[in-house]
Amino acid sequence: TGDRHATTMAASVEVVKPRGQYDEVVVHPLVLLSVVDHFRRVEEDDSEDKRVVGVLLGEYRKGRLDVTSSFAVPFEEDENDASIWFLDHSYLEKMSGMFRRINAKEKVVGWYSTGPKIRTNDVDIHELFTDYHPNPAFVIVDVRPDNVGIPTSAYRLENEIRDDGTQKEEKTFVHVPSSIEAFEAEEIGVEHLLRDVKDNTVSTLATQVAEKITSLQGLERRLVEIKRYMDLVVDGTLPVNHEIMGLLQDSFNLLPNLNLEDYVKAFAVKTNDMMLVVYLSSLIRSVVALHDLINNKRAMKEAEQAADAAAAAKANPKKEKEGPETGKDKEEDKENAKAKK
Questions:
Q1: Phi, psi values for residue 22, rounded to 5°
Q2: Contact present, 150 and 163 (Cβ < 8 Å)
Q3: pLDDT tens digits along 50-99
Q4: Residue 103, CB-side half-sphere exposure with 13 Å CA sphere
């Protein structure tokens, strides 16, 4: 019985996760807007390379960390010496207390940085937030306008022990899957915001083409990153990570076999249909352009005739006023001349 009880306890200990442990970080739109606003306000007075740091607020629910709000914190660091940095701890305490009064559910769950990469002093800053959360999250928000894809990257701090025993235990950041989601009320606000930002002069087709181009650019960046990683593995610079290799293999297995005759025929038909639409569109555009050119020439000719008539009227104002002589007037003039004789 004792052994059975011990086995049951051991099994239960393996299943239960540590307090505050999460497998996914969900960032809400309000957090992104707040971080961008914080970065823009600081960027006006400082250099572009400077990053900003703030506090993330949210709640933990069933292995998922929802980041619903945030606030900025005064932060300074030495660009030459990474070990020299300052974070206003008293300001953090005051702001967290005020937010706790407004919404008791939202607690300090981590911190954010505009990175765009992890720096050497981030581990020390992360240790500071362990006083507020047993396992705080570190989220890097990439605010660069040329960034393609999801602008957030989430991490948590874990202990790393080398198998060979040549190095002591050290702490390192481990990547955590992150996503961007919104509540119903947030979705309505984001839709209204995008409606105001959207340029009504741009057509829907142009918007769709721009979205396709952005998606392809994101795919290209991912492929280049995969190629760089594989080159480093082949050269022996990085060790082989079987989890990453498994994910890459799954991705390649999802690709369709384009050598099949049905796929080739389907792509050919689809391409021909699209090229037909492009050809007809170009033809219609040429016809419309010629029509506009003809109408423009007619309008210019009518305008020139009107200008010539106006110039002739100004040159002979008396004739215009008296009007042209008719045949009846000429006969009366002849009769008057005969009577005088």
A1: -140, 150
A2: no
A3: 889 999 999 988 888 999 999 999 999 888 887 889 999 899 999 988 98
A4: 10
Q: How far apart (Å, rounded) are the C-alpha atoms in residues 196 and 186? A: 16
3-state secondary structure of 240: coil
Euclidean distance between CA atoms 70 and 107, whole angstroms: 10
For residues 81 and 105, the answer to whether their CB atoms sit within 8 Å is: no
- What are the residues facing 139 on neighbouring strands? 112, 154
Q: Give the Å distances, CA to CA, from 142 to 43, 116, 194, 320, 333.
A: 14, 6, 20, 77, 97
Spatial separation of the C-alpha atoms in residues 147 and 140, rounded to whole Å: 13
CA 99: distance to chain centroid? 29
Give the tokens for residue 303. Answer: 């305008």
Q: Which sign does the torsion angle of CA 105, 107, 110, 111 carry? A: positive
Return the structure tokens found at 60. 């933990």
And the tokens for 317?
């104002």
The first and second tokens of residue 251, run together, are 């991705």
3-class DSSP state of 279: helix
User: What DSSP assignment string belongs to 301-336?
Assistant: HHHHHHHHHHHHHHH-HHHHHH-PPPHHHHHHHHHH
Which pLDDT score is estimated for 166? 54
Q: Is the pTM of this model over 0.70?
A: no
- Return the H-helix or E-strand segment holding 143: none
CB burial string 137-176: b at 16+ within 10 A, e below: bbbbbbbeeeebeebbbbbbbeeeeeeeeeeeeeeebeeb
> What one-character-per-residue DSSP string does 103-142 give?
-SS-EEEEEEE--SS--TTHHHHHHHGGGT-SS-EEEEE-
pLDDT tens, position by position, 144-198: 877 767 889 999 988 876 655 555 567 889 889 999 988 888 888 877 777 666 6
Kindly write down the DSSP assignment for every residue of 50-98, as one continuous string: ---EEEEEEEEETTEEEEEEEEE--EEE-SS-TT-EEE-HHHHHHHHHH
Residues 6+ apart with CB under 8 A from 110: 55, 56, 65, 67, 129, 133, 136, 137, 138, 139
